[in-house]
Amino acid sequence: MNPALGIRLGAHRIVYELRSYFRAPDSVFFTFLFPIVMLALFSVAFSSAADIQAGPGVSVDYATYYLPGLVATGFLLSGTQALGVDIAGERSDGTLKRLGGTPLPVVSYFVGKIGMVLVTSIVQTALLLVIAGVVFGVDLPTDGGAWARFAGIMLLGVATASVLGIAISALPREGRRATATIVPVVLVLQFISGVYLPFTQLPDWLQTVASVFPLRWMASGMRSVFLPDAFASAEPGGAWHLGLGTLVLAAWLVVGTVACLLTFRWNRRDS
């Protein structure tokens, strides 16, 4: 296949996928708006609580504290959860089978899905940061190095979450079971990865389990961007461990890509 043609078809698929995404109210609420809703809930619920301390004279309010984890959660929701449920549904209702009978290459289909996740993640994150700064008074970074780190973690996180979403879509045998199969996994990862609870307050064995998965490292990476350096003391080992986090995310990106290539089929498993 001509690579240029594959890219053009992939670009057309991105536009198509974006239109389909924003026409589905459940996807918009449970993936696109969910981090924003959770930030608003936590900010309002703890508005009268004392700030979270990280040392003498270093503290942040609850909106600032929860923002990094919710940014990372948005990548997992838009990538792993949304793609996993969506592709499983398309496989079950025959959409993939019909696409398999067209000249559309698999790589162009993947480009459309991953491109949709990237665009929605950028828009979602930008909206989340604007609301955090304007409505809840969160002080966003002013250092260019912090924003460069943010961009790197975001791109790696979105790519990893996307390929894992494509791979996990092969698990549900029927599209109607996809939500029940995939959403609980994503929800559990949020609770054990330091999104809603301080990571070091979890039992050591649960920290070890969470550290195997990518969300823990996306969340800690985002905390290194949005929280003062003193908050690194609340991480395991008292440091952000950005290098280790990058290696774990890169490993999951490779594993997810291989799993996509091995498990993706146009037809249903039972057809």
TrEMBL record:
It is a multi-pass membrane protein. Pfam families: ABC2_membrane (PF01061). Keywords: Antibiotic resistance, Cell membrane, Membrane, Transmembrane, Transmembrane helix, Transport. Residues 26-267 form the ABC transmembrane type-2 domain. It comes from the Bacteria. It is found in: Cell membrane; Membrane. InterPro entries: ABC-2_transporter, ABC2_TM, ABC2_TM_bact-type, ABC_2_transport. This is Transport permease protein. The chain crosses the membrane at residues 28-46, 66-89, 110-138, 150-171, 178-199, 239-264. It comes from Curtobacterium oceanosedimentum. Belongs to the ABC-2 integral membrane protein family. PROSITE patterns: ABC_TM2.
